[in-house]
Design brief:
Elements (H helix, E strand, L loop, with lengths): L3 H16 L1 H13 L4 H7 L6 H9 L5
Helix pairs in contact: 1-2
């Protein structure tokens, strides 16, 4: 299991890799500023889809 420090470090690395340094910093600032409730947000999402359906959606493939 990773420590909290390791999780933070890896999270920032991933954000910087995919968003770039400036946008990663903006994201962190937004999260710290907003009163974001992950559990409430997650419960508001539609039911989970299968990995196959999600992958097909990402790749623009119809599963009919």
């Amino acid at each position: 299991m990773m420590t909290d420090t390791e999780i933070r470090s890896r999270g920032v690395q991933v954000l910087a890799q995919y968003l770039g340094n400036v946008e990663a910093e903006r994201f962190v600032a937004l999260i710290q500023r907003d009163l974001f409730d992950y559990t409430e947000w997650r419960q508001s999402l539609p039911e989970e889809e299968s990995l196959e359906a999600l992958n097909a959606k990402i790749n623009g493939v119809r599963l009919d």
